[in-house]
Design brief:
Order of helices and strands: HEEEHHEEHHHHHHHEEHHHHHHH
Oligomer: single chain
Number of helices: 17
Strand content: 5-15%
Shape: elongated
Strand order of the largest sheet: 1-3-2-5-4
Largest sheet: 5 strands, mixed
Number of strands: 7
Organism: Mycena sanguinolenta
Number of domains: 3
CATH class of the largest domain: Alpha Beta
Structural class: alpha/beta
Protein name: BTB domain-containing protein
InterPro entries: SKP1/BTB/POZ_sf (IPR011333)
Helix content: 40-55%
Length: 317
């Protein structure tokens, strides 16, 4: 073994592991990220990434570390993120456009490093996944159904917000902040533990969330729940019955202390509520509810002191 092979490995205090899926015996470049080693094709990396192209075009000194006879380069990125990026490059089926599924960690890792290393086609795919999770219109929001972002996973709203904040994706901030603001005040202030990692928000985001959360509470009380207080409607067919029903339903829903102004009712719950009213009141209540939801959505950027949707600009994909 060339003495230069020890230089790279001995710098790490962890046991070095070769990632089998990304260790190609005939490849010509070894990358190290943390305790993980990847043997890949430098030419393919250079073709996909302008940053790697420039990096690999620089003549290397004779003292450059070698592993298995290949030049070795240390990447100062999270090992998991590097693995996701390399899998996306070397395995065409690993990270596809929506509606193909992708976990939050994969999307986040690919987005971070495709941005850093200028892998444009993968950045576009990652942004498409992010756009699907963080819609920019109420119609797009409703198409997602009664679910949270990356709905098959739990505890992603704070990491998602941190990602959007880290990469300064202004167009995605209102929706990311909205989902995070639905958390309890204690969770916003104290954070939580997930998979052995403590997830905490910086004070600037805590402040923004608490201010926005208070505004959402007011909006839910005075706009969303207003749909009950407008009954019975002018064309009501069962005035006394609808009046009593609307009051009982209002008190029941208000007493739940659930913050979710855009999704306060599941489709099943909404059908159950409106079935107790006459047809004109059911229609009037539905129209009032949709008007209130649209108002909350339109004001979402302002809720978090971000201006307007127009000022934030469109999604880049």
């Amino acid at each position: 073994m060339d003495s230069r092979e020890h230089i790279l490995i001995e710098d790490s205090q962890e046991e070095i592991t070769r990632v089998d899926d990304l260790w190609f015996p005939d490849a010509n470049l070894v990358l190290q990220a943390g305790n993980r080693l990847f043997r890949v094709f430098g030419g393919i990396l250079a073709a996909r990434s302008t940053v790697f192209r420039d990096m690999l075009s620089i003549p290397q000194p004779n003292s450059q570390p070698l592993i298995d006879g290949c030049p070795a380069v240390v990447l100062h990125d999270a090992p998991a993120d590097v693995e996701y990026l390399l899998k996306a490059i070397f395995d065409s089926g690993f990270f596809e456009r929506p509606p193909a599924p992708a976990t939050f960690n994969v999307v986040a890792g690919v987005l971070r490093l495709s941005t850093k290393y200028d892998v444009e086609y993968l950045r576009t795919r990652a942004l498409l996944h992010l756009s699907a999770a963080l819609p920019r219109s109420l119609a797009e929001y409703d198409l997602r159904g009664h679910v949270t972002p990356f709905h098959t996973e739990t505890n992603v709203t704070f990491p998602l917000l941190l990602l959007v904040h880290e990469l300064a994706l202004a167009w995605a901030l209102p929706t990311a902040l909205y989902f995070a603001a639905l958390s309890t005040v204690k969770r916003i202030m104290d954070g939580f533990s997930s998979n052995g990692h403590n997830i905490e928000l910086p004070r600037s985001l805590q402040r923004t969330l608490l201010i926005g959360r208070n505004t959402l509470v007011v909006a839910q009380t005075y706009h969303i729940l207003r749909c009950f207080r407008t009954l019975p409607c002018d064309g009501c067919l069962r005035r006394e019955s609808c009046q009593v029903t609307s009051r009982v339903l209002y008190e029941a829903v208000a007493g739940l202390q659930l913050l979710s102004p855009l999704n306060l009712f599941s489709p099943e719950a909404w059908n159950s509520i409106t079935s107790r009213l006459c047809a004109p009141c059911s229609l009037a209540m539905g129209q009032e509810y949709q008007t209130a939801r649209q108002k909350v959505w339109d004001e979402l950027p302002g809720t978090f002191e971000l201006g307007s949707w127009e000022e934030l600009g469109p999604a880049p994909v």
